[in-house]
Amino acid sequence: MLLVPKVVVEYHKLSKDVVKESLGVEATDSFDPTQRLQKDSPMKDTGKMGEKLQETMSSMMVGLHPLARPSRLRWKNKVDQVTPSPNPTLLKSHWNIKTTVGQMWS
């Protein structure tokens, strides 16, 4: 079973001239815009996709502990230089968090 986005189904219902112009293909009665989706479907390559996903997740998780807390918080307050005003709504507060594994979050 192939799940096809509604956009593709609606696109298939367009006139043949529009399909022919936009895709640069010969639009016939048997034209199926989902054919490319079926041909290039990631379902046929699930093993490789799973490996790539595992590698990505493991590289993201290296050195991170689920209970890791920030070792310190550093606050920076910057005043808007374009329109200096005593109004506190024009003040911008920026902060950075340095985690225990040395990554900076801003």
Q: How many β-strand runs?
A: 3
Shape: elongated
The residue fraction in helices comes out at 25-40%
- N-to-C series of helices and strands: HHHHEEE
- Let me know the average pLDDT: 56
Number of helices: 4
Termini, distance in Å?
Answer: 44 Å
Number of structural domains: 2
Main β sheet profile? 3 strands, antiparallel
Organism: Mycoplasmoides genitalium M6320
Protein name: MgPa adhesin
Biased composition (Basic and acidic residues): 37-49
Region (Disordered): 30-49
Description:
The protein is α+β, with helices and mostly antiparallel strands. The chain has two domains: 56 residues, no CATH class; 36 residues, no CATH class. It contains four helices and three strands. It has a three-stranded antiparallel beta sheet with strand order 1-2-3, with no helix packed on it. The radius of gyration is 26 Å and the shape is elongated. It starts with 5 loop residues before the first helix and ends with a strand. It comes from Mycoplasmoides genitalium M6320. This is MgPa adhesin.
Topology:
Layout: H1 6-12, H2 16-23, H3 35-39, H4 46-61, E1 70-79, E2 91-99, E3 104-105
Antiparallel strand pairs: 1-2, 2-3
TL;DR?
This protein is 34% helix and 20% strand. The protein is an alpha+beta fold.
